[in-house]
Design brief:
With 141 residues, this protein is of the alpha/beta class. The protein has one domain: P-loop containing nucleotide triphosphate hydrolases (Rossmann fold, 3-Layer(aba) Sandwich). The chain contains 5 helices and 7 strands. Helix 1 crosses helix 2.
């Protein structure tokens, strides 16, 4: 049975609370897929999720590196930006299966290609914007 959560974030100051609520809702789910337009705040939300998980690393978008690895008290955290990935073979060459099978949190921006081959349960997070507000819809699948 699918479970859903809707959250509204009227200001960036509330992102830590949004991240905490998403993590609590996710429970044992470790794979998060983020869907949103460019500039909607995917990377910023992932930074707050990582902070909630105890990471103090420097956070940035892995647009060119494809994956960033962060340290936290609970282990490694992986942040993917698959925007430039165009073929499934590129995902496999990246070693995506090893990351997903690691049991670590995997936060994935631009996951459309990956979703086609995912075997694990995942949390689908859609972000929409209206003015300065962000609307988050999370779906456990």
């Amino acid at each position: 049975m699918e479970q859903e959560l809707d959250l509204i974030c009227p200001s960036p100051e509330e992102l830590p609370e949004i991240a905490e609520k998403l993590l609590r809702f996710a429970g044992d789910y470790k794979v998060f897929l983020f869907y949103a337009q460019m500039g909607a705040g995917k990377t910023t939300l992932i930074k707050h999720l990582c902070k909630q998980l105890g990471s103090n690393d420097n956070f940035s978008s892995p647009t060119f590196s494809i994956v960033n690895e962060y340290n936290s008290p609970i282990g490694k955290l992986y942040h993917f930006d698959l925007y430039r990935i165009k073929h499934l073979e590129e995902l496999y060459d990246l070693g995506i299966e090893e990351y997903l099978d690691s049991g670590a949190y995997c936060f994935v921006e631009w996951p459309e290609l990956l979703e086609q081959v995912l075997k694990e349960a995942f949390l689908k997070v859609s972000i929409t914007t209206k003015g300065n507000s962000r609307y988050f819809h999370a779906l456990k699948t």
